[in-house]
């Protein structure tokens, strides 16, 4: 490039703009490639291996390499079906296969059933081209629609002396998005948000479960592309020694990420507002994730009074969310979490035992009004109970071990 | 009981935070002459942190009088301190207006700069508004808050005394109910007392009141950061941009919105302390050294790992002066050699009053910190993902890598500014400590589960942003 052009006052800003635009175009092309050729985690390629193949017509058995079919049924039909979970036809474009021993004398058909037509499955003859490719595209078939509940292959016209067939696998091929659909898909992934979760405090991964992209990586790629283009357009060895354009590139990238994060914060705030705004402290607990058991805990607090008592909260998993939330809601009562009790637990008459459901190591001997922990027994009186949640007992006396 | 609050109670809660804040800020303000750029934000930022930490610390010895008596005594103390701080300082309205105008940068002549400043301030204001509303509406949310930090605060608030939390076996042996227990009973108590503080004003436990100190901490951290950036010599626009970089970090925002964890407190105390340290290395300003030491003293009182992070200050301090540098480097080498020797031979002894110390090939056990089983674990993948792949830090992870390269390159080229050497030592030292923890001990499990690596990195992020700002300032002037 001519020295006079490089020295022109308009060159630097133009180089920066060109770098930004070029990076944007490059990123779009990369994203197009990613969305066209990579798997969508929500609709991945489903590979049905031999152990999951069922022989519904014909004779054969599983072998090391696959499902080996020795003989066709009496009508010359071999039918192999894949064990699948139902899926929407719009998410998958067709079926692939790996079969050894299939010759041109036998017809190959793909068979499928929908939730509406389970008793009358559809079938379609696979063309020679499709047989050579090992995949059949069903998107043009009007019957490939709705919820697909079964899919398989039929081999028709097998002679008794025909070579055995080896079915190694079937593959359900996901649909590739159209070019025009890539931008909306990328936008959805960009905006995908799990909301506040228990893991939010440890790391921020709002886009987990999104289609294909995590927001940070495209921005990093964009910044790198923009920096590279600018480096080529305004190289330091030609006198362009300022860091400012690279700072601008960084700030634009940062702003893109932060604008997204701000949007997510606003959406999460809206969820928080809709759940809790205007509610008093007690009402928030009754509206929140503890609403299933908080009323029972509140009843326990009312029963126990304001003077703190020692509570032995016995639960099968003392580290669980429910147990620890119950302990928190019972404060300032003096709660100790444990999976069981014994003589070393320090239970005293007057203490309270809260058996939180579900339990597997404690028995309540109603006849003797005792709690049984293995060889150890506690004489108790029942105070409060809620089926499915637990029972509150007051300790009357502590028995010695049998 | 988590009670609904009257307006008077909310006024008392606001007073419980604002009075110490003002007292701390105005006391600090007296230390600097008028006209120093960034001094008001610095005073407001550090004032909140120091005042609230001092208040929470003093609750412990004064609690013999009863918690509420202790609290109001301390508030009286803050009021008196405020009164003393404003003595002889009754600026006229005109002077106040002029001092506020001095906050507006004199160098922001261009409309573009002013517009950017306004936009940045607006963006930050929006961020803080959203976080404030989350704190206001969201019940206590994160796990460790309602299993540890807020459990103690709530018990103390509702009982009106600092009931001791002991090991489960000690609790079992005490039938009186006078002691409590939780799994993390041995964690430092300062953060729980910070949570307790505003509830003492409220008169009863309230989750929103208990979480408000976290919001104040974030705002004060922002002010302190901005003030230090301006004192460093960065323009208002550059300082505010760097501040945006800090406050925009998603994981930091999360620790404000889902208040209740101790990590934000350690991040702020560590960050503000190290910023002051870096200022001291550059200017020798003893006020900054005092700020550094005052906040550093709280690190082990906030979280157990704070005691380990204190070790970072030693090599950083040794690199400050040229004449100490060789001695310092020799001492560091000697410490490493000694540690290596102890590790090979195996060292195990019971130190009086402190506890068991063990250094060996199988495990390391240090008092107050804990026991770690040793062995190499390949945590590069999860480390890279946390720093460079997840949304925790926007682009800061990448910027940090670039910044380290730039800093090392400058040192290699012969630059020996004390602040550069110390800053680099602090950043590299922190990364080495994290590497040691997550690659050489059984703490690697926490990294794999994703439960703590991000939070430990958060401790250093405010300082990392400030360090990058110091590099940028020098880089932008030398490359113009």
Automatic annotation (TrEMBL), chain A:
Keywords: Membrane, Transmembrane, Transmembrane helix. It comes from the Bacteria. The chain crosses the membrane at residues 14-37, 216-234, 246-266. This is Uncharacterized protein. The lineage of its organism: Bacteria, Pseudomonadati, Pseudomonadota, Gammaproteobacteria, Chromatiales.
């Amino acid at each position: 490039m001519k020295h006079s052009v490089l020295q022109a006052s308009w060159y630097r800003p133009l180089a920066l703009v060109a770098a930004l635009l070029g990076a944007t175009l490059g990123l779009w092309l990369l994203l197009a490639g990613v969305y066209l050729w990579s798997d969508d985690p929500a609709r991945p390629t489903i590979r049905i291996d031999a152990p999951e193949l069922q022989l519904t017509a014909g004779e054969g058995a599983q072998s090391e390499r696959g499902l080996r079919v020795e003989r066709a049924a009496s009508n010359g039909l071999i039918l192999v079906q894949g064990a699948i979970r139902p899926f929407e036809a719009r998410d998958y474009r067709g079926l692939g296969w790996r079969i050894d021993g299939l010759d041109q004398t036998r017809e190959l058909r793909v068979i499928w059933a929908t939730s509406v037509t389970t008793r009358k499955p559809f079938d379609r003859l696979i063309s020679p081209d499709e047989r050579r490719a090992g995949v059949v595209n069903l998107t043009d078939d009007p019957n490939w629609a709705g919820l697909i509940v079964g899919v398989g292959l039929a081999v028709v016209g097998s002679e008794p002396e025909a070579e055995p067939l080896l079915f190694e696998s079937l593959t359900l091929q996901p649909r590739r998005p159209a070019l025009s659909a890539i931008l909306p898909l990328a936008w959805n992934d960009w905006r995908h948000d799990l909301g506040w979760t228990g893991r939010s405090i440890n790391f921020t991964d709002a886009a987990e479960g999104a289609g294909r992209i995590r927001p940070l990586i495209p921005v990093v790629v964009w910044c790198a592309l923009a920096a590279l283009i600018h480096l080529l357009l305004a190289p330091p060895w030609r006198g362009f020694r300022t860091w400012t354009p690279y700072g601008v590139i960084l700030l634009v990238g940062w702003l893109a990420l932060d604008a997204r994060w701000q949007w997510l914060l606003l959406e999460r705030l809206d969820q928080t507002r809709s759940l809790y705004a205007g509610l008093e402290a007690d009402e928030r607990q009754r509206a929140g994730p503890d609403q299933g058991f908080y009323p029972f805990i509140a009843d326990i607090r009312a029963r126990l009074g304001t003077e703190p008592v020692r509570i032995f909260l016995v639960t099968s998993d003392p580290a669980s969310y429910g147990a620890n939330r119950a302990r928190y809601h019972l404060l300032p009562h003096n709660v100790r979490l444990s999976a069981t009790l014994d003589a070393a637990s320090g239970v005293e008459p007057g203490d309270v035992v809260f058996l939180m459901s579900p339990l597997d190591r404690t028995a309540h001997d109603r006849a003797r009004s005792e709690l049984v922990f293995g060889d150890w027994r506690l004489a108790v009186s029942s105070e409060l109970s809620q089926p499915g949640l637990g029972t509150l007992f007051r300790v009357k006396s502590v028995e010695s071990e049998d | 009981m988590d009670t609904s609050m009257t307006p008077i109670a909310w006024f008392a809660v606001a007073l419980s935070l604002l009075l110490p804040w003002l007292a701390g800020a105005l006391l600090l303000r007296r230390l600097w002459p008028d006209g120093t750029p960034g001094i008001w934000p610095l005073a407001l930022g550090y004032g909140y942190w120091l005042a609230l930490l001092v208040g929470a610390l003093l609750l412990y010895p004064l609690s013999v009088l009863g918690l509420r008596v202790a609290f109001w005594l301390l508030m009286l103390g803050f009021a008196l301190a405020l009164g003393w701080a404003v003595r002889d300082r009754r600026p006229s309205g005109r002077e106040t207006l002029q001092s506020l105008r001095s906050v507006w940068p004199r160098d922001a002549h261009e409309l573009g700069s002013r517009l950017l400043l306004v936009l940045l301030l607006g963006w930050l204001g929006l961020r803080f508004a959203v976080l404030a509303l989350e704190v206001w509406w969201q019940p206590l949310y994160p796990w460790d808050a309602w299993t540890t930090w807020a459990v103690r605060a709530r018990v103390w608030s509702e009982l009106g005394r600092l009931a001791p939390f002991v090991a489960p076996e000690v609790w079992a042996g005490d039938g009186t109910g006078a002691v409590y227990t939780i799994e993390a009973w041995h964690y430092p108590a300062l953060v729980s007392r910070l949570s307790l503080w505003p509830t003492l004003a409220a008169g009863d436990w309230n989750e929103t009141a208990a979480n408000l100190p976290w919001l104040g901490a974030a705002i004060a951290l922002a002010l302190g950061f901005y003030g230090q950036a301006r004192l460093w010599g960065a323009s208002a626009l550059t300082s505010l941009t760097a501040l945006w970089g800090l406050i925009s970090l998603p994981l930091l925002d999360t620790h404000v919105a889902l208040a209740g964890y101790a990590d934000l407190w350690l991040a702020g105390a560590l960050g503000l302390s190290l910023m002051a340290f870096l200022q001291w290395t550059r200017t020798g300003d003893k006020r900054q050294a005092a700020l550094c030491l005052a906040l550093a003293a709280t690190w082990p009182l906030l979280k157990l790992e704070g005691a380990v992070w204190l070790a970072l200050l030693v090599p950083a301090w040794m690199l400050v002066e040229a004449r100490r540098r060789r001695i310092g480097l020799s001492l560091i080498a000697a410490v490493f050699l000694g540690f290596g020797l102890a590790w090979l031979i195996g060292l195990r002894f019971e130190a009086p009053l402190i506890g068991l110390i063990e250094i060996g090939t199988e495990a390391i056990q240090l008092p107050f910190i804990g026991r770690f089983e040793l062995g190499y674990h390949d945590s590069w993948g999860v480390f890279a993902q946390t720093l460079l792949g997840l949304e925790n830090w926007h682009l800061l992870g990448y910027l940090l890598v670039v910044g380290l390269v730039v800093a090392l390159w400058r040192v290699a080229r012969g630059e020996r500014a004390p602040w550069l050497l110390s800053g680099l030592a602090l950043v590299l030292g922190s990364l080495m400590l994290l590497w040691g923890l997550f690659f050489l001990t059984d703490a690697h499990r926490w990294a794999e589960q994703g439960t703590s690596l991000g939070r430990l990195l958060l401790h250093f992020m405010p300082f990392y942003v400030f360090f990058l700002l110091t590099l940028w300032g020098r880089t932008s002037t030398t490359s113009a």
